Amino acid sequence: MFVGELSSPLSKHFNVKCSSDRLCGERMKERNSRYIYLLSAGHLFADMNQGALPAILPFFIAEYGFSYTTAASLIFALNLVSSIVQPAFGVLSDRISKPWIMAGGVLLAGSGLAGTGFISSYPLLFASVMISGVGIAAYHPEAARYANKVSGQKKGAGVSIFSFGGNLGFALGPIIAMWLILSFGFKGMSALFLPAIILAFTLYVAMNRYQRDEATSSAARKTQNDVRDKDHWGAFSLLCVLLFSRSFIFYGINTFLPLYWINVFKQPEAVAGTSLSLLLAVGAISTLIGGRLADRYGFHKIIRSGFFFLLPLLCLFIFANNVTWATLLLIPIGVALYVPASPMVVMGQKYLPNRIGLASGVTLGLAVSVGGIAAPVLGKVADAHGLPPVMYIVAAVALLPAILSFALPELKTKEA
Questions:
Q1: Residue 2 lies in a domain
Q2: How many CB atoms lie within 10 A of CB 414?
Q3: Is residue 269 one of the residues assigned to a domain?
Q4: Fewest CB within 10 A of the end CB: N or C in the chain?
Q5: CATH code at 101?
Q6: For each of the chain's 416 residues, which pLDDT tens digit applies?
Q7: d(C-alpha 413, C-alpha 405), whole Å
């Protein structure tokens, strides 16, 4: 493959040999389309660890007697470190491009969560999930920067594939975590070590090859020499407000939905985790749809439509009085919540064309993870007043992006 130029299916996919610039350009484009799936696989695994944590909270509460606030603080730990560190990794990505950062990120993301299976001390649990948060923070900016680069003119579709991996990881995380714990106890989480090592090695080898090929490709040199637009910080700041609001809504639902199913609808833990996976699975599919619709109809229209419909859907959800009706509502809620996701990432990269790494770190990192920081606050509300008021707050916050999305400026930018 890379080490010793061994022949393998992976090397056939990611190695490019050609006899002319035109043929090489065509083969580079075909190869680049394959790279987006590898980057998406890394995104899947990184976010699978992040998505698994909320599903583990009921087990921590039952096993160690944690309060809602204490348990939700683990979400806070993971997302606080991710929020702080991820923009810094974005700046680093703009200055130097090192595939080992992506590989190391995947390795830390899996190792940190796997370590929770061997720890019963709350401070050590807190530290372990923070390690996972550092890994997640390291992966996103560099990987999103490459996803933008290899997507060519179809950035909506390309970034949506990349985002799909992360959303699918969030959806699979609760299922895998619950299966490991129910089958093997907390130590079953150690199974996350193996895929972390394999995927980290694959990313390191393949993306090193990509970097070498890109450096010698005439097509890549032309892309790197393109004149870019100026950075639009005002538009980017408004976009971040939308992303912060969406993150708050997402984590409010993601953290407390299983607990809502258990305590309000009196459902067993397995069913509670399945409800979260349903929402996230619908969301993952909607991410793919959103990117393609954005390429066709415009990024702004898709962003505005998603937030416009999300508000009334959440209002209907909080008044649902039975589990069947609530479960059915999770489907359109997932669509409305996730359709704007990848278009907003691309818009962030367009607003800051000279700082794509930073834009990616903020749109995929800080702006996404900041909602997790609010989880302990919502946990205090749940401890004091019960779980329904948490959902009332989530629905109220949805009013902000529903209004502000119509103020998002449309810029005629050159392709990044």
A1: no
A2: 10
A3: yes
A4: N
A5: 1.20.1250.20
A6: 333 333 334 444 555 455 444 445 555 555 666 788 999 999 999 989 888 888 888 888 888 888 888 888 888 788 777 777 888 888 887 787 677 889 999 999 999 989 888 888 888 989 998 999 899 888 988 888 888 877 766 778 888 898 888 878 877 888 898 899 888 888 888 888 889 999 999 999 888 887 777 766 645 455 444 445 789 999 999 999 999 999 999 889 988 898 899 988 888 887 887 888 888 889 888 988 998 999 889 999 999 999 999 999 999 999 998 899 999 999 999 999 999 988 999 899 889 988 888 888 888 777 766 777 777 888 899 989 989 999 999 999 999 999 999 999 887 655 44
A7: 19
For the chain, the domain total comes to: 1
Examine residue 4 and state whether it is found in any structural domain, yes or no: no
Kindly report the pTM of this predicted structure: 0.73
